[in-house]
Amino acid sequence: MAADQKPILILTGAPGTGKTTVARLVAERADRAVHIESDCFFHFIASGYLHPWKPESHEQNKTVMRIVGEVAVRYRQAGYQTIVDGIIIPGWFFEPPRDAIKASGFDVAYAVLRPPLAVAVKRAAGRRSSHLPDAVVVEQLWHDFSDLGALERHAIEMTPHQTPEETAGFVAEGLDSGTLTT
Description:
Helix content: 40-55%
Strand content: 5-15%
CATH topology: Rossmann fold
CATH superfamily: P-loop containing nucleotide triphosphate hydrolases
Number of helices: 7
Structural class: alpha/beta
Order of helices and strands: EHEHHEHEHHEH
Number of domains: 1
Distance between the termini: 16 Å
């Protein structure tokens, strides 16, 4: 598929699945690409911030993710292949950016990285970020991606030893073939 016809890719999964690394690798394959880390947009909130995994944060989450979708559209309009990464769970985070993107006339591709739970927990625990949730939250988020319903075909099952390059290849193939388009 030609770069100017590619949908905006929303690349997601629980913490420790390799989203950011894979998004960077997919972006590097294009002549012109933008990698938007949606988590950064939550840190722009200077006061009144709520942890996005808490039920009371739903309105905040919808607002932030709609803005992420709008930014993705602007980059796509400027001719960049656009990849958004973050913890973008259906029912919590997915619909606002998807709807903003589709309203602009662009297609949306959705890819959920799903390594074994033990791999995700180990990777997330090995990071030195004060923003990462603890192992209990990582496990809950992993389970939130374990049954995607109608979006299950967007899951990319990963093996424990799969490299980021291999995963990026699977994502790029799904993007090019249209199988990840919603």
